[in-house]
Write a structure and sequence with these properties.
By secondary structure, the protein is of the alpha+beta class. It is built from 5 helices and 3 strands. Strand 2 and strand 3 form a beta hairpin. It is rod-shaped, with a radius of gyration of 28 Å.
Length: about 110
Amino acid sequence: MGLLLNSTRKIVFWTYPRTSWQWDVLCVLILVFIFLSPKSWFENSEFRRIHMRATTVVVSSDLIGVQADKDAIERRAKALAARPDGHVTGLRERRDEKTGRLIGYEVDIR
């Protein structure tokens, strides 16, 4: 019982020196875990679905018209991105730096 308790305590608190065979075994086990674990263990499909599929589309005001409403801009952006079921998360105007004239819209779609 004393040997088992002593070994467990050494493993939990890791009192082995770096030059011991136990240290080498631990390093090999870590490397085996890193290289042989399936990629699917570390994938988060919800994160990827939300964050990785975000798209920013620039819609020219020539295509929409200067006085277009928000719905028309969103529909055009979804069509350009080929994502009719997408959700528009942001809409920003793009203006010419010199004249201040409306050039188009930047639309964020997820």
